[in-house]
């Protein structure tokens, strides 16, 4: 029995490799995490980029809180099981009012089975 997702959402993930939308953060949590990122960017005078975009959970408390957030972990557990390890992460950000695009990425070869998640797309 899934912890947060419905049986239909788990089946959709297994079939399609992604599921959305999933509300795991409260509006206050979103504001707080986003505010911390924006405060860091303001102090740097530029948007976050590499190397800080890679493994941000090792650098920033807010990112560490996100990867350990109980609801985030519940969703991940629903789709890959309880043996969860954050090995790597990269922030995919699209700054407002820019022509940049952030294409949906895949953590594995399309169509191949995967036990990893990327923004809950596999």
From TrEMBL:
Gene3D superfamilies attached to this UniProt entry: q2cbj1_9rhob like domain
SUPFAM superfamilies per UniProt: Clavaminate synthase-like
Protein name from the UniProt record: Phytanoyl-CoA dioxygenase PhyH
């Amino acid at each position: 029995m899934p912890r947060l997702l419905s049986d239909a959402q788990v089946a959709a993930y297994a079939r399609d490799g992604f599921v959305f939308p999933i509300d795991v953060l409260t509006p206050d949590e979103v504001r707080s995490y986003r505010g911390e990122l924006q405060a860091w960017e303001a102090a740097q005078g530029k948007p976050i980029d590499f190397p800080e975009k890679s493994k941000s959970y090792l650098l920033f408390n807010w990112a560490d809180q996100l990867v350990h957030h109980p609801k985030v972990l519940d969703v991940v557990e629903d789709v890959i099981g309880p043996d969860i390890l954050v090995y790597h992460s990269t922030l995919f950000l699209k700054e407002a009012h820019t022509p940049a695009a952030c294409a949906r990425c895949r953590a594995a070869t399309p169509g191949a089975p995967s036990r990893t998640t990327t923004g809950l797309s596999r």
